[in-house]
Design brief:
The chain is built from 14 helices and eleven strands. With 389 residues, the protein is of the alpha/beta class. It has two domains: 120 residues, Aspartate Aminotransferase, domain 1, CATH 3.90.1150.10; 214 residues, Aspartate Aminotransferase, domain 2, CATH 3.40.640.10. The chain has a seven-stranded mixed β-sheet, sandwiched between helices. The chain has a two-stranded parallel sheet with strand order 1-10. A two-stranded antiparallel sheet has the order 9-11. The N and C termini lie far apart (55 Å). The protein binds (2S)-2-hydroxybutanedioic acid (LMR).
């Protein structure tokens, strides 16, 4: 090293990510009884990672057939994009709307590409729900947006407050919605409530962007995109960022979809393509091949629907058993929660002592994932948490 002062002298450590950072801390915890309720990662009844039987069969078929490991086009695999657009929007809408689609590295990749593209097209702010997935804010801030929030949930759904806040948003702004299984609250809007929100957004002229990371975890994969489809039918220009991490159990394969319905689809697609080329060139191959194989094969698709039903059933059972074993009537809302998460009424200090004393991990917000519970750890978890409630 020369004696010249390093240009990096000023660097300070960035805070650990509230979800991924916790996962690292959990991995290093030597206690056998530890439980990570922090991350949205589905585990089976044995506490093991779950390889969907549909994915296993698709892998087998791909392995036997073999496929070239060439680069995908910048947009991604054509068959994958066609199938996932159908899965998100239905045949009727795909045939009648000017939709464009890109295969992306996970839902985060879709959100970041959307943010990069929109940062040069949209002048206003980005509105996120309060609370929301902690990565929404940094994704849009790092793309240059000012990010503000609208009320969504505090012990209960704040629908009136949400409507009032959204009515004040301008046509220069973007509003981010969770398509289903709101993360972190587990509280979704009804179709009637979505209709009201669609009317408000139409009146103020903001651009809606849906984040759909849990398709198939609320009702089923065909009903879960009902809000996005409603907005599209109502004639909004919109963006959809989908993650297939949870819906196919392909977390580490990084598969997502960026879709949009907007005027000038050809021009928009060419601009997004240029963004992608400059960011990661083209998306990863393997996960998309698995999903395409499943969606293009009737028997595999049926199996996939059954795999999702198995997951929903297990989450439902865990939600019910958790509430029963804790035995507190004010936690009844958990039973009806949608998707992996709900909040527990715990303070950050209580969250920290659960981590220290019992090796039970969750973010400071008190959000827990019911996918990490099973018959073997339920009693330990509910006893430990129950002491703080
Ligand atoms: C979560 O919210 O736990 C998941 O979506 C994982 C992640 O990327 O944060």
């Amino acid at each position: 090293m020369s004696d010249q002062k390093s240009r990096f002298e000023h660097l300070v450590e960035a805070p650990a990510d509230p979800i991924m950072g916790l996962q690292e801390q959990f991995r290093q915890d030597p206690r056998e009884e530890k439980v990570n309720l922090g991350i949205g990662l589905y585990k089976d009844e044995e506490g093991k990672s779950f390889l969907f039987p549909s994915v296993r069969d698709a892998l087998q078929r791909l392995y036997e057939r073999g496929y070239a490991k060439d680069y995908l086009p910048i947009d991604g695999d054509k068959g994958f994009i066609e199938e996932t657009l159908l899965l998100s929007f239905s045949k009727e809408l795909v045939e009648s709307k000017p939709l464009i689609g890109f295969q992306t590295p996970g839902g985060t990749g879709a959100l970041r590409i959307a943010a990069e593209f929109l940062s040069s097209e949209v002048k206003g702010k980005v509105y996120i729900s309060d609370p929301t997935w902690p990565n929404h804010r940094p994704i849009f801030e790092r793309a240059g947006f000012k990010v503000e929030s609208y009320p969504y949930y505090k012990g209960q759904l704040l629908f009136d407050e949400m409507k009032r806040a959204l009515a004040a948003v301008t046509s220069d702004d973007i509003v981010i919605f969770h398509a289903c299984c709101h993360n972190p609250s587990g509280e979704d809007l009804s179709l009637e409530q979505w209709q009201e929100i669609s009317d408000i957004i139409k009146a103020c002229g903001a651009l809606p962007l849906f984040d759909m990371a849990y398709q198939g975890f609320a009702e089923d994969p065909y009903k879960d995109p009902q809000a996005v489809q409603l907005f599209l039918r109502e004639g909004h220009e919109l963006f959809l960022c989908s993650s297939y991490s949870k819906s196919f159990g392909l977390y580490g394969e990084r598969v997502g979809l960026l879709a949009a319905s907007l005027s000038k689809p050809k021009e928009a697609a060419s601009q997004i393509r240029a963004q992608i080329r400059a960011l990661y060139s083209n998306p990863p191959l393997h996960g998309a091949q698995i999903i395409k194989e499943i969606l293009q094969n009737a028997a595999l698709k049926k199996q996939w629907e059954a795999d999702l039903a198995t997951i929903r059933k297990r989450i439902e059972t865990m939600r019910k058993s958790f509430v029963e074993m804790i035995g507190k009537s004010d936690l009844a809302y958990i039973t009806d929660g949608k998707g992996m998460f709900s909040f527990l009424p715990l303070t950050p200090d209580q969250v920290l002592s659960l981590q220290k004393e019992a090796g039970i991990y969750m973010p400071k917000s008190g959000r827990i994932s019911f996918c990490s519970l099973n018959q073997a750890n339920l009693s330990y978890v509910t006893k430990s948490i129950g002491r703080h409630l």
